[in-house]
Amino acid sequence: MARILVIDDEADVRRLLRKLIEADGHQVLEAQNAAEAQGALAWRPDGVLVDVSMPGETGIEFLQKLRAHPTLGQTPAMFVTAHVDRALPLQQQGLAGPHVIHKPFRHEEIRDAVRTLLRCRRRRVEARVRLVRETVHAAVDDDSPAVVRNLSPGGLFVETKSRRSLGQNVALFITYLETQLACRARVTHAGREGLGLAFIDPGTTFLTTINATIEDLLTEGSQSDDRRRATRTLVSAAVIIADTEGRKDARLRDLSLTGAFIVTSNAPAMGAQVFVYLPGYTFSEGTRRRSEVRGCPAEVVRHEGDGFGCMFRQPSAEFRMAIEDLTSSDGEEMLVGI
Questions:
Q1: What is the DSSP code (8-state) at residue 267?
Q2: How far apart (Å, rounded) are the C-alpha atoms in residues 179 and 199?
Q3: Residue 263 and residue 254: Cα distance in Å, rounded?
Q4: Is the pTM for the entire model greater than 0.85?
């Protein structure tokens, strides 16, 4: 599942686009003008469908500002408009593309547009910045504040001599200039240099502030951290998870050789051990086409409002092949039987 931001001043158009996009299993963020769309960027959409002509700031002006955004400037976008003559020159210059959708549109046009946007964004990385100055500090539980060395929307690394065990939940207090934030976090790395911490159930205000902080840090000279960059592929496919409560149907939102984000309304607890079943090889059996499955144990390492992130534990060669099959198929859904 992906997040698609729809920007249009006509409520009926937004309603229709939401219906069509959600029918394919994606999440829709709505904005009736550029100001609302700026707020929706805190959710880090995977693609944008935008009208050209709107009251106030136009869709063209919004995209021009988006392209200058330090962390979201490469977000793919496409014009959905009745003013094709105005959109085409901008599309041909690379502001949005690869084509313009003319109103009124057909369902298949929107479906193809979303697939195109996601292919443009298939390779994505989490925005992690390596701090060049000691401007962000974090305190774990009742410890004294220590210097934060890198920061992302999912967590941070703090230089501290304090020791915690992997998987332990802690209270985290972050300070940046005059901004102070508090959040529960889970220890994901414990070494001599300090602690790696993943945020637990961060709220909208918390994430918005973290993203704004990252933008400030990039502006003042901090750099994207390539040392731990993990490439994930956006995938929309069926998946089955098994935990102490039994097996459940769910969907993939993204996938890599090391982990995945799984969309479900009933996420296991942080640190819980689950078993993830992916579609495997599709083969013919007489007139039927069947899909074998491949499974792997995994640990829950991240929570969001729509599901959880997990890390695979000792994936087999067959499981890794199933991952490669899915990530090379542009996210095409495969039926699973288990």
A1: P
A2: 17
A3: 9
A4: no
* CA–CA gap between residue 272 and residue 275 (Å, rounded): 10
CATH of the domain at 306: 2.40.10.220
In eight-state DSSP terms, residue 51 is -
Mark which of 121, 141, 164 sits at the end of a domain: 121
Please indicate, yes or no, if residue 337 is contained in any of the structural domains.
no
Give the span between the Cα atoms of 15 and 10, in whole angstroms.
9
Q: Which domain holds residue 289?
A: 232-327
Please state, in angstroms and rounded to a whole number, the distance separating the CA atoms of residues 117 and 98: 9
Question: Do 140 and 219 share a structural domain?
Answer: yes
pLDDT, tens only, 239-261 = 889 888 888 888 887 888 888 88
pLDDT, tens digit, for every residue of 96-132?
A: 877 789 998 988 889 888 887 876 654 343 456 777 6
Please report where in the chains the tokens 């298939």 appear, as a residue. 122
User: Backbone phi, then psi, for 317, in 5-degree steps?
Assistant: -60, -40
Longest CA–CA span in the chain (Å) reads: 68
- Can you read off the two tokens belonging to residue 2? 């992906």
DSSP-based three-state secondary structure for 70? coil
Q: What is the phi/psi pair of residue 17, to 5°?
A: -65, -40
Residue pair 297/312 in contact (Cβ under 8 Å)? The answer is: yes
Helical residues (DSSP H) of 187-267, grouped into ranges: 204-219
Q: What DSSP letter does each residue of 20-34 carry, written as one string?
A: HHHTTT-EEEEESSH
